[in-house]
Amino acid sequence: MKMHRWIWIATATLVALGIVGVPRLMAQAEKTQVVLWHAYRGDERKALEQVVETFNASHARIDVKLLAVPFDAFPDKITNAIPQGKGPDIFIFAHDRIGNWAESKVITPIDFWADDDVLERFMPQTMKPLTYRRKLYGLPMAFKSTVLFYNKDLIQTPPKTTDEMIALAKKFTNKETKSYGLVYEFANFYMHAAWFHGFGARVFDSDGNVTLNTPAAAASFQFAQDLRNKYGIVPQESTSVLVTSLFNEGKAAMVINGPWFRAELKEGLNYGVAPLPVVSATNQPARPFMGSEAVLMSAKSEHQEEAFTVMTYLTDVDAAVVRMNVGKQPVATAAAYASMTDPMIKVFREQLENSVPMPNTPQMLLVWSPVTNALNAVVTGGSPPARELAKAQEEIEKNIAAARR
Amino acid sequence: MDSQPREETRPARPPASAVGLSIVIALCGGMLLVLFGVLAGIWARDAARLDAMIRARAIADAVSRADDSTESGENWIRDVIDSAKTSLPGTTEALVLEGRTFVAHTDHALAGTRLDRKNVEHKRLYDDADELADQLERNIDERKKYPDLEKNPYATAVLESDEHEVYVAAPIIEGKMDVRGIVALKVTPAPVKGGQFALWMSIATAAFIVAAWLMVRMEPRVSQVLVGTMFIAFAGVLVFQQVHEASAGLQGVLTNTGERSRVLWQGAMDSGKALAGFRTPASTGEFLEAINQSEHGDPVPWFERRGERTGASMGGGIPGASELRPGPALEVDGRWAWRGLGVVAALMALYLLLLVTGRTRKIAEVFREHWYAYAYVAPAVIGAVVLVFGPFLFAIGLAFYTRVYNTYEFVGLKNFIEILSNFKVLESRNFYRTLGVTVMWTVINVSLHVSIGLGLAMLLKDKTLKFTPVYRTLLIVPWALPNYITALIWKGMFNKEYGAVNEFLGLLGIEPVSWFTTFWGAFTANLVTNVWLGFPFMMVISLGALQSIPADLYEAADVDGAGRWDKFVRITLPLLKPALFPAIILGIIWTFNNFNIIYLVSAGAPDNKTDILITEAYRWAFEKYQYGYASAYSMIIFLILFSYTYVTNRITKSTEGAYE
Known about the structure:
The structure holds 2 protein chains of 2 kinds. By secondary structure, chain A is α/β, with parallel strands linked by helices. Chain A contains 16 helices and 14 strands.
């Protein structure tokens, strides 16, 4: 009977599947699972997946499970999920929240495992921001800071100084076609930070006091205002979406943005990157904020030792080469640069020498909102910088005192 | 004994007041039993912790004075530890561990184990040492800034334990604040005597219940009040006796273990191998104080962890035990007695009041007849309590606190006063200014929603109009899209140079407007976005209500020769009122608290001037991290909306009869 044959075949298949499948399942069960959360997309994600695949294939006892979480929701998810025991074992994020997470016991120090031969892999600038209250909280994967993007169809040699930049930008600014020489989010303090530090200003002094109300800071704010009002080389208002679309349409000759910007550019756009110019007024290079993107360990992880093995693997030379060449990441592992194939990475590395790590203290979180308000008032509202900075300084000091006391 | 005729058919029914009083006495007795049962456990544990910590601290202090320049330092420390086990009964295991954190001291002659990376227990101890170093450093930092903090020398103690075994760790401090190692001790505390309170409380509760039943035969009301009051008085005596005993137990530990530890410490000092220069404390009290200070004069933190373990060696597998808590106080907190008694006495007083005024019988009747109704709503009530009222009560509580570095301090009405007493109404972020903006925002929005929605509904209702379903669908689209997407699109359209709005105005010959640099510009941008989002709701509501108005009313009006306007004012509007009024009330609440639009479109620009109350409250919580202040802010918002709904509810009640 036909029916019978089918039943036999089905049973045989099931049995065969069982024989092959059960041991495999059991083998799976013996592995310790390490959950890794990340917010990567595009090439970076591809590279990370490739690295993790190699890891899983070569490690019998550990199984890394990747989970991609949208970037905007990432810090909040970490802050909420980990204390409830639902978070990852390790995750990848920029260093600027380390202070806050360490204070609230979301992440745990890794000094216990970190041998000197692991720590010596990394460029020292990328290590320092991962330390909070003398303890190390992560291993650096990559560093990210802004650089100068330029349209190669319009500009052959990128400017070396801000005076050159302004002169060049004026040439390409056309009010009729709404094209601008320089497009960047000038009302965003993160983007402004390059000028801020280039004029010699700092957010905190070495004792942790707020130092916004200084002539240097005021000069940098004035400079940003001049770019818009005096020279007219930047758009009247700018958001990140606008920056992307103007550069893609060829209506922006130069753009200040970070390595993630490359993923947003359209195929075939003829562009180049260069270190940010020297601020002519102070003869100091513009120094953007540097974010050290690190793999951090959850304080609630039950497999910390295994997790650290994964962390070491992700940051060793072989993995770093993949992340650099496939993921186009400016990686923190120094030895990887011997096998660099992407010339743009070299520029990011040059910029690292002239950058300021974002402060990782909880106090920094109280700085963003008032300083952004001040920047807005100065650049778009036309207010005098000194007054707005004094106001911001006063408010931040008040809030820091209130948050503590 | 009851005059009601119905009672005669059910003669064996017990008197309601005796049942009620029994329930209340049992409830009060039970509450006190549970509360003080828990507190007794906490107090006993506190005493055990204190006991263990004094030992650890004494050893750590002795070890920190070891003369590390001599070869015999290691043996000397071993001697101290060995004598600890003999001279301090209950010390089951002791260990001195040097951590890798303290790299500067790796060649120190300190005894004990080197950390092993593959050893899970070492990792845990390492974490402890780490946490201790952190606590100590932080303590010194904070005290420099706020000298009035932390008067209690144990305030930075961090610990956890259970009643059978206490696991403590104390840092070994060298010089000013270098933590160079860790002393870990496992102590089995002396058994805690107790159970007396539970016994006496149970007896008292039972006795008073019996009394309530006996005395009800005499003079119900007077005797019940008498029994109730006496019960509370007697419970009070028991409670204070309990507090007194716990205090005595704590003092016993302080003197007993304190003295033994002093002897041990003194022995170590007298061995002649310690560094010179320490001062011999004159009394146990002085000794206890001395070992709690680093050389810098700062209190030294303690450390303790739960004692369950699997491994054989010190520190054993402690699942999830890295939670660290503040240490025990030096005194039993007597305020708990007052709090517990206060709640119970208030409950009893409330009951007696009901009894005297004769309400108890009625409540009992209602409950007896409708008990199943309470059973049905119970799940929903529990859900609401956990998900809504719990967080809500938490927020109310938080409004009276302010954060003092990692804890919260009660400040009473200070947050409210700070918000409400600032009358600089011209400054942005001022409460009254923000309130004004919020009210204006709400009024303009809702009026536009209603008039546009109603107007469109009237048009759509017109029978002569073709393709009505198409228009209707299109007009509902703004409502159907997620509002944050719409908000972001509108924000892009208000861009000065590239936005669609200015392009359009340019066609009309109007100069480009910089929308987000002036208050009115930004306010208008918010308003346009929200009107776009808000009118479809009002339109849908009006459309439904319009269709339910009987056509013959209009026909009758036509016969009477009424014009369009008359029909609208005299028929349509009055009959729309019952449907539209609740929608408007809801609309006002939604708009008043419309966080998304303000946050996404203008983001408060310029300089937080277009912020409404709810976005302002958000900024206090998540941009300035002042949770207490933000809670007070949201409480005020709640009170405003609450009184608003209360008033409107009374008004709508009068309109409810429109169809009747």
